[in-house]
Amino acid sequence: MDLNKFPKQYQLLYALSKSLFIDREFKCVAIISKTPYLTALAACHGAKVKILPPYERGTCLLLPKQDEPNKYIHAVIEGTVNFSGNQDFYWYRYRKVRSNSKCDPGREAKPCSEIEQFGKLFPHKTPENWLGKRDITFDEVQHLTNSAYPVLIGHDAKAKLDYWKKIPLGIPNMPKLNMEYLLNLSASGGKFSDINTFSPRSFNSKKFESQIWVNDVPESIRLGRFMIIISPTHNRYQDLISQVNNIYANNRLTSVEPQSIPTNLIELGIKNRALSVVALMRDSAL
Prior knowledge:
This protein has 8 helices and 15 strands. The protein has helices at 8-21, 36-47, 112-118, 138-141, 157-164, 179-182, 237-250, 263-267, and strands at residues 28-32, 49-50, 60-64, 71-83, 87-94, 106-111, 120-121, 136-137, 147-148, 151-153, 197-198, 210-214, 225-230, 253-255, 277-283. Strands 11-10-12-13-1-15-14 form a 7-stranded mixed β-sheet, with helices on both faces. Strands 3, 4, 5, 6, 7 and 8 form a 6-stranded antiparallel β-sheet that branches. The chain has a two-stranded antiparallel sheet with strand order 2-9. The protein is elongated and about 60 Å long.
């Protein structure tokens, strides 16, 4: 998809998100948006990372079941091995779904090429809570792309994401284009998604380095990279802006001076308010 065909505001948001989450130019960015969940999805576009092999030990994934290829089993990568110098294999563990969940897991090896082609990765899951879950059908995971996005935190976030991903972006010559298509998200709003959503109360920030907060502000930004998106019509707008301002002092951050802003962001109009960015923060040591 050629980004040059998109409005400058979208290009700027994409580039800003990439600078924050991938290039690590900033620690925290705060944005004002009248459509915060649409903005969050566009930011996910800029922060998209394709998960590439080789897969590390402890990686959780779904693999096609040998006797039922329309179903997937839960598995965990153990490592790689080369048999007779001909082909690399992944060792992986799996556990059959039984009433006795304490049974020892099985262990098998498959060619790396097969697992890398057909496996569905879940980078934020842990082996302890993965093995032994029920088998998954192909229809539930066919849309997954083995990509990693920032986690999205907000009240009723999943329902709002499922709504806004279907809204056309209004781009000339592409009137039906939406974020569902751009990010290859499930049309059904099913159980599995490349984008993880949480409410502020249920969120464990230690598991996710890249975070997008919508109409809420994290208590701490010590670990990770953060984008905060606030609607100007939200009933707590002034309080949320005050919390954003407090982030500087509470986390020893400094505001990014105009001359230190990356050139590509300047060219896309960040200084001209093409996007309502209210805070660009870096660690004081940078």
